[in-house]
Design a protein that fits this description.
Helix content is about 35%, strand content about 30%. It is of the alpha/beta class. The protein has an eight-stranded parallel β-barrel, surrounded by eight helices. A hairpin with a 2-residue loop joins strand 2 and strand 3.
Length: about 260
């Protein structure tokens, strides 16, 4: 299973939110490029970037930071947050971003998702962020009446390469992933599922590994990496090979908190 470090961008800085609440943000580093390079050096095989400002605004806001990270890294990068039209998605791909993550438009404009999946095959990932099983949109500020499993099935039919599933009530809480919800979602579709939200320990990662045979192929880890509750090289050894064998000691983020 792939361990994917997350960098959440807010006003150009690396932050983490608590349950998606913009009012409860913690800055970990003023320089997200520095953080991205460190995760790559420690063996990450992929990087997960979220433009939090973009998710709220409905358009890419942290483009300069995203471009700078892409220019300094060699590993694949996926980006989400505010991607609600073709031009935004194409703009990311022109920068060399590997996957675009669509969220709100999956609910509001499924036809656009289908068109983008056809134009950019295997490069469109749908992010399904849910509260109590219902899909949230617009930077998690609104909750729809659409069931997560229902949306996942529809997006698979439209050509999505994978689904990233985030349980909002677990995100940033360090309370562990919602295994039941992930199991239900993975059972409903055949494309890969990437877990996100609440992962707080290597034990949590190992519990997710039990879902690998059902199609949970990766896990996004955010806050736990920055607090030191999960050490990336240990996580890679536990559930995935990582990118390199000689992984340097983990980074101490205490000075950035």
């Amino acid at each position: 299973m792939e361990v994917i470090p997350a960098i959440d961008l807010l006003e150009g800085r690396c932050v983490r939110l608590y349950k998606g609440d913009y009012a409860q943000s913690q800055v970990f580093n003023e320089n997200p490029v520095e953080v991205a390079k460190m995760w790559e050096e420690q063996g990450a095989t992929r990087l997960h970037l979220v433009d939090l400002d973009g998710a709220k605004a409905g358009k890419i806001v942290n483009l300069a930071a995203i471009e700078a990270i892409r220019n300094h890294l060699s590993i694949p990068i996926e980006v989400g947050g505010g991607l609600r039209d073709r031009s935004s998605v194409a703009q990311l791909f022109n920068l060399g971003i590997n996957w675009a993550i669509l969220g709100t438009v999956a609910v509001e404009q499924p036809q656009l998702v289908q068109e983008l999946c056809q134009e950019f095959p295997q490069q469109i990932i749908v992010g399904i962020d849910a509260r109590n099983g219902l899909v949230a949109t617009r930077g998690w500020l609104e909750t729809s009446e659409v069931l997560a499993t229902q949306l996942a099935t529809q997006m698979q039919e439209l050509g999505a390469a994978a689904i990233i599933y985030t349980d909002i009530n677990r995100d940033g809480t360090m309370q562990g992933p919602n295994l039941d919800a992930l199991r239900e979602l993975a059972a409903a579709i055949s494309i890969p599922v990437i877990a996100s939200g609440g992962v707080s320990s290597v034990t949590d990662l190992l519990s997710l590994l039990s879902l690998a045979p059902q199609g949970v192929t990766g896990v996004i880890v955010g806050k736990a990496l920055y607090t030191g509750d999960i050490i990336l090289n240990e996580a890679l050894r536990a559930i995935g090979p990582g990118r390199i064998q000689d992984i340097p000691p983990h980074l101490d983020f205490s000075s950035f908190a």
